[in-house]
Design a protein that fits this description.
- It is globular and about 55 Å long.
- Strand 4 and strand 5 form a beta hairpin.
- The longest helix is centred in the first third of the chain and has 17 residues.
- The chain has a domain of about 160 residues: Metallo-dependent phosphatases (Purple Acid Phosphatase, chain A, domain 2, 4-Layer Sandwich), CATH 3.60.21.10.
- It contains ten helices and ten strands.
Length: about 250
């Protein structure tokens, strides 16, 4: 299905914007839905091809894996894209952080990970999730054997945030009142309530995922674009083009 909705276009220039001649597309939490990611990338590529900018950015906001059926397929797709698209930046989310921790032998979150979407991720790599629980001590070795080295290398190298002009792209959010350069990586991938409730001017516009919203939420200090793709079939991208904004989304 190739239908999409342009959900919002601002009438007035936002306070924070990208430099002139710069366009950035930010994609929310994919969560194992390669089908939706392919659909959304096709929409983005069509816009970029029809009306290019001098400087283009394509940013994924993390949580590439878990919940949906094709975690492995999503990573395969992004590795292919990374080889041909220098504008691509892939950020890490809390789900990638949990998987990397388990690859390194930290099993504290094994049961939680499997419950909150890791079961589908493990299955996509040919693993039996029950086997991971039955012998948790063997889980890191099983994961390392099943997950290709190129995938593990990518997941380990994902940055926590990227700033372009007046806009900070991050998975979960930031800790209000803490300088951007002093933010805790744990907050960047996990924070919710203190960030979501804050009306503070952070000195940047924060574009984030992590917390599911029915529609993209536009606040003076942040824009939330995780529309729950794995459950809703709706994967959302925010386009920031100088001082203009609009959204693209897959069909629900």
């Amino acid at each position: 299905m190739n239908r999409f909705t342009a959900l919002f276009r601002s009438a007035d220039p936002p306070t924070y914007a990208l430099p002139a001649g710069t366009r950035a597309y930010a994609i929310g939490d994919v969560h194992g839905r390669r089908d939706l990611l392919e659909e959304l990338l096709a929409l983005i590529d069509a816009e970029r091809s029809a009306d290019p900018r001098p400087r283009e950015h394509l940013i994924l906001l993390g949580d590439l894996i878990d919940r949906g059926p094709e975690s492995r397929g999503v990573v395969d797709l992004l590795l292919e894209r990374q080889a041909t698209d220098p504008s691509l930046t892939i950020l890490g989310g809390n789900h990638e952080a949990m998987l990397v921790a388990m690859l390194d032998g930290n099993l504290r979150d094994l049961e939680s990970w499997l419950h909150f979407g890791g079961e589908e991720c493990a299955t996509s790599y040919g693993l039996d999730p029950i086997a991971l629980l039955v012998e948790p001590a063997a889980a890191p070795a099983l994961l390392r054997t099943a997950i290709p080295e190129a995938h593990a290398t990518l997941l380990r190298a994902l940055p926590d945030s990227v700033r372009i002009g007046d806009v900070l792209f991050v998975h979960a959010g930031i800790r209000p009142g803490v300088a951007l350069e002093a933010q805790d990586p744990q907050d960047l991938r996990w924070i919710r309530t203190p960030f979501l409730r804050s009306a503070a001017d952070h000195g940047v516009l924060v574009v984030h995922g992590h917390t599911v919203v029915g529609e993209p939420e536009i606040h003076p200090n942040r824009i939330a674009i995780d529309t729950g793709a794995s459950a809703t079939g709706r994967l959302t991208a925010l386009c920031l083009d100088g001082t203009e904004r609009h959204f693209l989304a897959t069909g629900a």
